[in-house]
Amino acid sequence: MDKVKKKATYMEKQFCAVCNIRVDRHSSMEQHLNGKKHMSLLNKAQRKRRIEEQACSEGVYITGIPTSVSNTTLLEYFKSFGQVVAIQRYEKDNQTLLQFKLRKQAHAALKSSHHVGGSELVVRPRRAVQHQTTVPKDGVVSHIEIFKNALEESMKTNPEMSIDEQIRSLVTVLEVTEEEKRRQSQIISTLEEWLSLEFPSCRLHLFGSSVSRLDFRGESDLDIFMETPTNASIPSVREPFSFQEETLKKQRENVLDVLRRASNIIRRHPDVSDLFVISNARIPLLKFVHFPTGIKCDLTCNNIIGVQNSKLLFSLQSFDIRIRPYLYALKFWAKSHRLISSPESSLSSYALTLMAVYYLQQMDPPLIPSVESLQSAVPVEERMSCNGWNISYKVPSVAGSINTEITIMDLLIGFFRFYRNLNASEMVVCPLQGKLVPKTDFKDSTHPVKEELSCDNENRDLRPPLKLSLLCVQDPFQLDFNICFNFRHFELFQSLCESAEHTCLRILEVKKEARVLDLFKTTVKTKFSAAKVVESPLKSSIFLRFQPIHDGASPEQAENLIRSVGQFIGSLFSFSYGIQFEENTQIKKKRKQMNSDFSILHDENGSLLKWRTNYLMTVPFDVCTNKREGLLASQVLLENDAKSLLDRERAITSLLSCTSPENVTPYAVVNFSMSYDVGPLVVSLHFGNTVSPKTFFLKLVTDFRRCVSKSVEDHLIENKLQYKLK
């Protein structure tokens, strides 16, 4: 049977300029044009065109201006036609763009003749900028591949390059050019001039990777901070809780108002497109694109801390010549594996850089000092603050001695090894102190207590607040900000660190044929699984602080007080409240490690200074119900006045247990521990949630805070102990 040869039919592809895609068949094009995505993009493009047409109808171009005529003279002349909201002068073309507030004002200026400075000015309408969409090209190579190819070419010319030389060569390929820096400065100056009429004394400053000098060639966006007189209203002293919340709320409203006013001006700029305001971000910002260069810009107006952070990262690079290539290599590695600058990952470039800085702080000896030591070098009269946070620092002009034995590759291996083994579930990365800090030293601000409790002078929790997550990295200036709070892929990060460490060790073993590019090659696409949000366990503490009624209390009396209060609280819970305890750790009168963050301490005479006991507490029912005061007054005290305090409390519990149903699930099951400190005279009750509902746990701790404090006060009076609660 003869084979029938089919003619190859050529299907011409049609191009949709709105969606920037090609469509195969005519029927598919009709289906595409009626699709939701196309209609949404079409409406967006039409709305954008209307905004541009309105901006063009309100603007005029002026030529023939004498060089002796200043912008102020032009504004004085043209304000007779209406309010001028923006002005942009182009010295190279000898023309000026004036933007009026209303269309009719621009039309009035176009109809009139103008003579300024002895010369006749030519006024013509502003034309719309053609924002054309380019046809997509097949096989577009990403910037990552371009960088890799350029690095391979540079290594071909010098095959004997050492590994550190290869990394430094990588920096020359990645860093931005002088032409890009010039364009960035030009964007800032033109926007500053455009905003000068609406905000007469405003200044625009760059921050982010453009200031830290860790930006990538042709890829980095511009982070812009607009400094206005309204920024001067930021308080320099931390205010009480309620006043601080009210002040911050008012500041946020002012920031949003400034951003909306700025957006109304910037959207009329001929070189700006795709502008919108993100008002629900932690720091509200204005996003837009500078069309001639394609650079994406983010503008904020209340982010002085961000500016200082960027300057700090730049200043820290002066401590050692290896720091900058080390940071560049880490950023390039993370970008190659889509850990940063990727929609799948929420790890910011700033967070990764700060993690890299912290590793250098904890080295022995440290390559970078702690931020705290840099802040202490600033005189008090020169210190800067924002919202009460200390944002000043001083880097010494002469760096310390350089240990030449450590290579850049050694620093990379150390970084990967450190974070591969980091116990992130228990520790917080703290660049301020240059060390790891236990999470128990912080109060989780994602589970705030009631305001009246946080303002309680007697029993307040003095731990600093921080939003806790699986990976916690504390900002060195804004100390209540966890910059990795939204990062949900730390386990993947650790596995990539382990793989990168093995790759680096293999590169060192090969030597002659070693290529640092192997570190940045990704044979398998990084998989970002939908990680479950692991909530930090609920924790809370009650601190009972004592002070002697009379001066001259001996250390023995202090130790006896702490022991007496500890035994009373234990008896109060077990005997009076009927709470079951299962002791997890036995106390022995010798120095030994109790757990990861506490040990028994003795003084020279062998007396106990600090100790701790751990229990699993099972609360049978709500022993601190609101009926407690009524029962105490009406049925117990009058009949049992001669009994001890513990007996009276037990009688109250017995009456309450009658109203509680039997054979039911316990009211709460929590991890409980009591720690004792003879030095400052503190007995601390620590509660950690296990299987109890969150609402029960918070209510339990709140009620215990109230009831235990009252009972301890009665215990001090009843036993005539010469101490009182602070």
TrEMBL record:
Domain annotation RRM: ranges: 58-128
Pfam families (alphabetical): MTPAP-like_central, PAP_assoc, RRM_1, zf-met
Cofactor (UniProt): Mg(2+); Mn(2+)
EC number(s) stated in the UniProt entry for this protein: 2.7.7.52
GO molecular function: ATP binding; metal ion binding; poly(A) RNA polymerase activity; RNA binding; RNA uridylyltransferase activity
Alphabetic keyword roster: ATP-binding, Magnesium, Metal-binding, Nucleotide-binding, Nucleotidyltransferase, RNA-binding, Transferase
The keyword Glycoprotein is assigned to this record: no
Signal peptide bounds: none
Gene Ontology biological-process entries: RNA 3'-end processing
InterPro entries: MTPAP-like_central, NT_sf, Nucleotide-bd_a/b_plait_sf, PAP_assoc, RBD_domain_sf, RRM_dom, Znf_C2H2_sf, Znf_C2H2_type
Reaction catalysis annotation: RNA(n) + UTP = RNA(n)-3'-uridine ribonucleotide + diphosphate
Quaternary data: Associates with the cleavage and polyadenylation specificity factor (CPSF) complex. Interacts with CPSF1 and CPSF3; the interaction is direct. Interacts with PIP5K1A.
Its job: Poly(A) polymerase that creates the 3'-poly(A) tail of specific pre-mRNAs. Localizes to nuclear speckles together with PIP5K1A and mediates polyadenylation of a select set of mRNAs, such as HMOX1. In addition to polyadenylation, it is also required for the 3'-end cleavage of pre-mRNAs: binds to the 3'UTR of targeted pre-mRNAs and promotes the recruitment and assembly of the CPSF complex on the 3'UTR of pre-mRNAs. In addition to adenylyltransferase activity, also has uridylyltransferase activity.
Protein known as: Speckle targeted PIP5K1A-regulated poly(A) polymerase
